[in-house]
Structure formats: structure tokens, C-alpha cells
Amino acid sequence: xxxxxxxxxxxxxxxxxxxxxxxxxxxxxxxxxxxxxxxxxxxxxxxxxxxxxxxxxxxxxxxxxxxxxxxxxxxxxxxxxxxxxxxxxxxxxxxxxxxxxxxxxxxxxxxxxxxxxxxxxxxxxxxxxxxxxxxxxxxxxxxxxxxxxxxxxxxxxxxxxxxxxxxxxxxxxxxxxxxxxxxxxxxxxxxxxxxxxxxxxxxxxxxxxxxxxxxxxxxxxxxxxxxxxxxxxxxxxxxxxxxxxxxxxxxxxxxxxxxxxxxx
Length: 264
Hints:
Blueprint: H1 7-11, E1 23-30, E2 33-40, E3 50-56, H2 68-81, E4 88-92, H3 103-108, E5 129-132, H4 144-155, E6 159-167, E7 177-181, H5 198-201, E8 205-216, E9 219-224, H6 229-248, H7 254-263
Parallel strand pairs: 4-5, 4-6, 6-8
Antiparallel strand pairs: 1-2, 2-3, 3-7, 7-8, 8-9
Helix pairs in contact: 2-6
GO molecular function: peptidase activity
Keywords: Hydrolase, Protease, Zymogen
Organism: Candidatus Faecalibacterium faecipullorum
């Protein structure tokens, strides 16, 4: 089986990640979106213990912040993974100069920031939100973990949402599947420096992403990406940003949130 970050591919039919038990999987259909929830109930399996949710949609290259049914479904699943109150930091992981890796930084551009000077909204019940895309941490000689820890120490959020591009083992899922999890960033690729979790940071770490890469038949060093990758990143980041906004600010409608975030 090709390398994958997607829990439902590992633990679903044909996957080998759940051999020996300890995994619960259930699927449902809502508003044209197929939602699969995977719960890994014990340690030592192919993915860290915790909850994973995938939302399979029409191709994300054709979706954007106006696709309210998809946004509402993703927001509801994300909200269920988050603490009910307190500030939230959204971290866009990746390299904005590499299209396949730009999902995190591009999503941050669509997040409604409500913390700091000039970001206060005259609406009761608005949740404090900060968002940042630190770029390629190795270029500054600082690990992603150290950067995240410094940001958490400065902002003191109740939760961290990390957005990153993902890898799938199935070509047809590239650009049309969203994965959310409460396990933090835990790429299955050996040697990855993108590991952020509650144990290391001391607060809930939620991961959100869209698969934009797939290992090629020739080996680990080569990848294939979906056609219309620029469109997948552009529209996928807008959709994820809108879903994050809706999950964090349920008092506002999708249209209100999209207008407010576009004014920032």
C-alpha cells in the first residue's frame, strides 16, 4: 500500500492499519458530503490514538467559500473536536512558494482574525482567534515544534488548529477530501519534522488538511499531484478557511464570515 496520511484509507476496507482491533469506523451522508469517522482507541496502530474525520466532496478545485453545505458539514465536524470556549490559534504549515505545500499558508489568509489591535469586532460572543503562517522553519534554523511552542506561549490559546497539505494513496481522492483530527500533526512519513501534538505543546492540537500529493509507482521520492493543482489550493484553502471561521464563530453566517474575512 502506498504511503498515506488518511486514516480512513488505512483503517477502512482494504486497509491494514487496524489489524488486531481497537478501531471504530462509521460513515454517513449529509448534504452531498460523505462523512467517515474513525476512532483509534489504542496505541500502537498505524495512526496515533484519537479521532479522525474525513469529508469526501465534489472536487475541491470546483468549490470555494460559497459552497455552504460543504462548509457547514466541515464546520460541524471541526467544532466537535474543539474545546467549546477560549482563544484559538490557527497555524498554516507549509511553504507558500511550493504550490502542493501551500495549503496551510493560503488557508490562513482566509481566517477571520479577532485578536490584537484593529481586529476587535463590535459583536457579542465573538471568539478570540489569531492566525499565522510561519513559513519554512528550517530556513530560520528553528524547528516547527519550537516555533509553535513560542507562539502558544505568547498567545496562550485554548487550542491550536494546524492546517497542512496531506498525502493520499488514492489518486481519485486528491483535491476532493478533507481530513480533520484531534491528534495534531502526525505525518506517517519517516523523518518528517511536522509533528505537533498535545503532549508536546500542552493544549489540544487539531489538524485539518486536504490531500494534494500521492506517492508515485516509482518510489517515495516522487509524487503525483492532482490536475488543476493551483485551483485545488486556491479553492480548497478558501473552503477550509470558511469552515474554520464558521466552526469558531457559530453566531455569524457563512456569508457574514466570508465578507468580514475579505475585509481584513
